[in-house]
Design brief:
By secondary structure, this protein is α/β, with parallel strands linked by helices. The protein has 2 domains: 225 residues, TIM Barrel; 86 residues, Elongation Factor Tu (Ef-tu), domain 3. The protein is built from 9 helices and 22 strands. The strands form 3 sheets. Strands 1-2-3-4-5-6-7-11 form an 8-stranded parallel β-barrel, surrounded by 4 helices. Strands 17-16-22-13-14-21-18-19 form an 8-stranded antiparallel beta sheet, with no helix packed on it. The chain starts with a strand and ends with a strand.
Length: 382
């Protein structure tokens, strides 16, 4: 039967996971190795992982930072020094860390995070062949549709994990983008809200830690009520991420109620503390509208193109010529959205302001006779 996995940071988290029944592994994020809401130091992580093992749960150390050479070397030194005490299950995103762990750490069991890359079976097969027995679990991306996930799960020969419920990360930067606006001597963990004129209905959540800044969508990803086909295909683990909604230093507050309701096949989404949806699960149409983003004018920049509107200022329009132009010539103006209008060139001036009757290509001219021109419009000779 498929199991759950979640993040923990306190003994209370650990006990709730144990009592939940269907949690068999717990994710432990530490400040040195994780960029996303880590609150534990290495000593606390070691103690918590030992307690988890005593309760029959598998502790997994999250090493999901993206690192520079210096940061990677520092993490390698810390892991090498503490390896005997640390969990042997490592959750890794950085490919440099992945290679080092595979070649150096004895008995390591790698949970490979493929949420940001390798979204095809050929790439996944390469990782399986390279990691061999070191590969313990693959963490798939939420960008994959249900159909693709089923195919991937049935093809790979290792444990598979998918985010069942949790925040959607939109953006990560190693830079600290919030602390410059905070008071001095404040906490090392900052949270904030971002909005813009283009996203008036959305307020994006921002969190800054010692290792950078993360931005989340205002709605969460949730497919716990739609997992039957994936489980039938062989899905082994569903991840629940409650860190943004847990009080104090906790990380999975309320997971017991969610799992209980899921076991009873009730509508689990009612318990989720934030608005949630499944944007890619049924179909990923993020590229379907790309053709609408591309201006229809690109296909018209052929031998009939006289020029392109370079700038607009009151009643004068600057045009970069791709062909010759003459005074009183009748041309077709095509605006960026595709609308057309016949115009007459009433005046032509060169860049020095001198009036001219004609001009050759590859020149910048100022013309009059165009009403309501738009930047990027083109002139056609039809």
């Amino acid at each position: 039967m498929a199991q759950f996995t979640t993040y923990i940071s306190t003994q209370q988290d650990l006990e709730e996971c144990k009592n939940a029944g269907l949690v068999d592994s717990v994710l432990i994020a530490t400040k040195p190795f994780s960029s996303d809401r880590a609150v534990l130091d290495i000593r606390s992580a070691v103690s918590l992982s030992q307690n988890a093992a005593e309760l029959g749960l598998t502790p997994v150390l999250c090493w999901d930072r993206l690192m520079t050479n210096e940061e990677l070397e520092e993490c390698k030194r810390k892991i090498t020094k503490q390896w005997k005490a640390l969990p042997k299950h490592l959750r890794i995103r950085d490919l440099g860390a992945l290679r080092w762990a595979k070649e150096t750490l004895e008995g390591v069991k790698i949970h490979l995070i493929l949420e940001d890359h390798s979204l095809n079976l050929h790439a996944i097969d390469v990782w399986q062949k390279y990691l061999k027995d070191s590969l313990y679990r693959i963490v798939f991306s939420i960008q994959l549709t249900e159909k693709k996930l089923i195919n991937f799960i049935q093809t790979v020969n290792t444990q598979c994990e998918i985010l069942g419920a949790g925040p959607i990360r939109l953006f990560y930067s190693a830079r600290k983008l919030l602390s410059p606006f905070a008071q001095k001597d404040s906490a090392s963990l900052f949270t904030g809200i971002a909005s813009s004129k283009e996203l008036t209905k959305h307020t994006l959540r921002i969190l800054e830690s010692d290792h950078g800044t993360v931005m989340y969508l205002d709605r969460d990803y949730f497919i716990l009520d739609s997992l039957s086909n994936l489980i039938d295909a062989g899905l082994t683990h569903m991840r629940i991420d409650l860190r943004l909604y847990s009080s104090g230093k906790r990380s999975c507050e309320g997971i017991g109620r969610i799992i209980k309701q899921w076991e009873e096949r009730q509508h689990t989404k009612d318990l989720w503390p934030n608005r949630a949806f499944s944007p890619f699960f049924r179909s990923n149409k993020t590229t379907a509208q790309f053709y609408r983003l591309k201006s229809p004018l690109y296909g018209m920049r052929d031998r009939n193109c006289v020029g392109i509107v370079y700038s607009v200022c009151k009643d004068a329009t600057s045009i970069f010529l791709r062909s010759h132009i003459s005074l009183n010539e009748r041309l077709t103006l095509v605006r960026p959205k595709g609308s057309k209008e016949l115009i007459t060139i009433k005046e032509i001036r060169d860049i020095n302001g001198n009036s001219i009757s004609a001009c050759t290509k590859e020149r910048l001219v100022v013309v009059k006779g165009i009403k309501n021109p738009e930047l990027g419009s083109i002139l056609l000779r039809e």
